[in-house]
Specification:
9 helices; twelve-stranded antiparallel beta sheet; single chain; alpha+beta
């Protein structure tokens, strides 16, 4: 019978792990061991994934001290991931936007910094942003239960008005239920008039009505360029989706050891579809990718770059 002590010795001796070893590693009782060896923050974990030839594995648990938040951690296409299912009838979905300084530059926050400031059970990186233009988010945002908006109508990206990028968004309607749609150049006031409480825009298409829709054509239409590179490049990825019961799905894929690991957008779409998403979008990826879990602080990507937007999940339903 495997024990944490034996597994510790096996790791120290640089021996290849097997499927049962990974099962033990993903067990919540192993958090201390994960912290000691920082398995998710070095090339060690990816090295053992590659040597063990494990392509698909997961172990799930209920997030402690919460109701309606289920976490699955595993390996897919030789990449470690966090997958979270959230019942939004029992938990709050919040969009975070960093403040601007006197020059209107967004003061980006790191994932670890935000985790210390906010009493959230789950945090994942947000939408794309322009590092060359005051860190401005490339999509409409509504946050603070509808009190505040980021309206990028006066900003451009690649010589195109940001609100005209025709990218996708996830929002909560007046009843607090999530839905996904296209922006079609609508400004923030349009969504506020529809009673939207939280909205994160600027996202890219993955799954629509239970079918994979990401393609070079859909990426070109949403101004993700060059589409062929966006489509085929393997890298760290993050995504959000909705299942057929209206539950929110969040996913983050971790740090890669080489170009052979990581996911393409099509692989990410297939993963979301296979895990119940009927609608799904991709968030900012690469060095922006990161996810925080309150029970062990797991962050599969090491230290992701600071950014202006995040999605927070807080346990318990607070009146709006």
């Amino acid at each position: 019978m495997r024990t944490l002590y034996n597994l510790k010795n096996q790791i120290q001796n640089n021996q290849t792990l097997n499927l049962k070893d990974f099962d033990l590693l993903f067990n919540p009782s192993c958090n201390k061991l994960k912290n000691i060896f920082k398995i998710f923050k070095t090339d060690f974990f990816e090295k053992h994934i590659n040597e063990s030839n494990i392509n698909d594995f997961s172990a799930s648990r209920n997030l402690p001290k919460t109701e309606g938040i289920i976490v699955a951690q595993g390996i897919y296409n030789k990449s470690a991931y966090n997958l979270v299912s959230v019942d939004l009838s029992k938990n709050d979905f919040l969009v975070y936007l960093a403040p601007q300084d006197q020059n209107r530059k967004f003061q980006t926050r790191s994932l670890d910094e935000l985790a210390k400031q906010k009493d959230a059970q789950v945090i994942i990186n947000g939408t794309f942003f322009n590092v060359d233009a005051d860190n401005q988010p490339l999509g409409i945002l509504i946050y603070g239960a509808g009190k505040y908006t980021w309206n990028p109508a006066t900003y451009t990206y690649d010589k195109i008005p940001v609100v005209s990028l025709n990218r996708y968004f996830l929002a909560l309607n007046e009843d607090g239920k999530p839905f996904i749609d296209r922006s079609y150049g609508n400004k923030a006031e349009y969504f506020r008039n529809r009673g939207i409480k939280e909205l994160i825009g600027g996202c890219g298409p993955l799954v629509w009505d239970g079918k994979v829709i990401v393609s070079p054509e859909s990426l070109e239409e949403a101004h993700f360029r060059p589409p062929s590179h966006q489509m085929n490049h393997k890298r760290q990825r993050s995504a959000l989706g909705i299942d057929n019961q209206g539950k929110l799905i969040l996913a983050a894929f971790g740090n890669q050891a080489d170009d052979e690991s990581g996911l393409t957008l099509k692989e990410l779409a297939e993963f979301m579809l296979n895990n119940g998403a009927v609608q799904a979008l991709f968030l900012d990826s690469g060095s922006s990718t990161g996810m925080y879990l309150s029970d062990d602080g797991t962050n599969l990507t090491g230290i992701p770059r600071a950014q202006p937007t995040y999605i927070l999940i807080k346990s318990g339903k607070n009146p709006k």
